[in-house]
Fold this protein.
Amino acid sequence: MRGKNLIGITGTIGSGKSSVAAYWAAVASLPLISLDRICRRLLEPNAPGWLAMREQYGDRFFSAGGDLDRAGLRTALSRDPGLRFQVDSLLHPLALDRMRNQVDSLREGMVLLEIPLLFEAGWQEEVDRIVVVHADRATCRSRITSRDDVDAGAAEDMIRIQMDPWKKAMLADHVIDNRGSWSDACLQVRHLDRIVRLLS
């Protein structure tokens, strides 16, 4: 993957990282690779991640029709650190391999990589620059409850299992502050695009 300028975009769940990544890709005409999308495809029936989960856990996280019970798995992961470690150990190598292959297939020199668990997975060395989309816990919690139709307790569980938002911000090369209006976040993205290109 070397020879390209790889920009890792991350942030706590509910921070708005997907919206920021999509806007940046659109406004700057840049390719965007989403690890969430890669993982969803890995967990489709008979895909490598699906097969690994089925072998490891049998019917535990699957419907009668063979589909992965994503909501049930998400709840179980938020409550059981040991299970979370096991599932990450199964899926992260597969996702990383697919991400690298997708990057290698691109001709563009600058690529955006949306990696929700970049720090948690220890993938810092996979990218050249890390951009954290930041929002405080209360803002993230409010967005999650609205988006996923869950209560505040469930939203907090989702936030709790990830690295603290402020710690992520401190580890970043660049930060997009997404606590305010969307128009303000878009201005920051446009400005950051110019900075990154000048530094490349």
Notes: The mean pLDDT is 94.
